[in-house]
Design goal:
Blueprint lengths: L1 E9 L8 E5 L5 H7 L1 E8 L6 H17 L7 H22 L8 E9 L2 E7 L3 E6 L2 E4 L6 H10 L5 H6 L19 E2 L4 E2 L5 E5 L1 H4 L4 H7 L4 H14 L8 E9 L8 H22 L1
Antiparallel strand pairs: 1-11, 2-3, 3-4, 4-5, 5-8, 5-9, 6-7, 6-10, 10-11
Helix pairs in contact: 2-3
Length: 283
């Protein structure tokens, strides 16, 4: 099994960078043996105090706690424990800075362990799986839009009212609240396939890009893909561009042949072209 990471981040047009991220040591074979590969991204909550400090505290405490995992402890148990401790750390920071429950951060953590994906998330940072040329979001966002969609599905409000509500992006859960009102996780680890790509990003990325645009950026090595995601967003020159951060994890099973990422997509293209030519010939 091999996991290749890529990352990129930019302040956008904001005065302060309130995104934070971290990766575990992907060369630490001893820890990988029982803890796998860890990636974490956080986004300080806009409109609250000390967003940068909240995101930094959430990421640093989460990584430090997960890194203290003992060999016999399960990945699920270590992730849950790290999330609880990261939340307490943000709560404590808010208390000491004089703004209890008015300082917060989203947090999204993913672990690839023995060919399976585990995740925990609070807030609205997104986790995507890219497989076979398609992309899909794995986690659920904790914002008011979910309640609005439920009301629309029940016929209480119209779909247009749900889609245009001014508070639809308001967060309902984030680190810095005690107790946490909600958290998202996969109940069973997700088996990965050779060639899968995991994308973790803050709203500065996904709010500006379509699924097709994200897929186009991911058609290269992980580091180049993460940078491309930021570059495409910044090229749109949005006047109020938010902070933006992208983490990309490319998974290859141990048994796979050493095909480069550019070579892999080129191979898919050749296969697709062959099938099209065959279809035309048979027609």
């Amino acid at each position: 099994m091999k996991v290749s990471p890529g990352n990129a981040s930019h302040i956008g047009r904001r005065q302060q960078q309130q995104d934070a991220f971290a990766l575990s040591d992907f060369d630490d074979a001893e820890f990988i043996e029982h803890g796998g590969y860890l990636a974490v991204v956080a986004d300080g909550v806009g409109g609250l105090a000390h967003g940068a400090e909240a995101a930094d505290t959430a990421v640093s405490r989460f990584v430090a706690d997960y890194r203290s995992k003992f060999e016999q402890q399960s990945v699920d148990s270590a992730l849950d424990e790290a999330l609880d401790h990261a939340n307490h750390a943000v709560c404590d920071a808010g208390f000491y800075l004089g703004c209890p429950e008015r300082m917060g951060s989203t947090l999204l953590a993913a672990v690839i362990y023995q060919g399976q994906l585990y995740w925990r998330s609070v807030g609205d940072s997104h986790l995507y799986l890219c497989r076979d040329g398609r992309i899909g979001q794995l986690n659920a966002g904790h914002n008011f839009a979910r309640q609005l969609q439920t009301l629309a599905n029940e016929g209480i409000i119209s779909q247009q009212e749900a889609d245009t509500h001014p508070e639809r992006q308001a967060l309902e859960a984030f680190l810095g609240l005690n107790p946490l009102p909600a958290r998202d996780r996969n109940r069973q680890p997700l088996p990965l396939q050779d060639g899968d790509v995991i994308l973790m990003c803050t709203d500065g990325i996904y709010a500006e890009l379509s699924d097709d645009e994200m897929m186009a950026c991911l058609n290269q090595t992980p580091m180049a893909a993460a940078q491309a995601l930021c570059d495409v967003v910044l090229a749109k020159q949005q006047p109020h561009q938010d902070n933006l951060t992208a983490l990309v994890l490319a998974y290859e099973s141990k048994e796979s042949k050493p095909v480069s990422w550019s070579g892999r997509f080129a191979l898919y293209g050749v296969i697709g072209l062959f099938l099209l030519m065959l279809a035309e010939y048979l027609a």
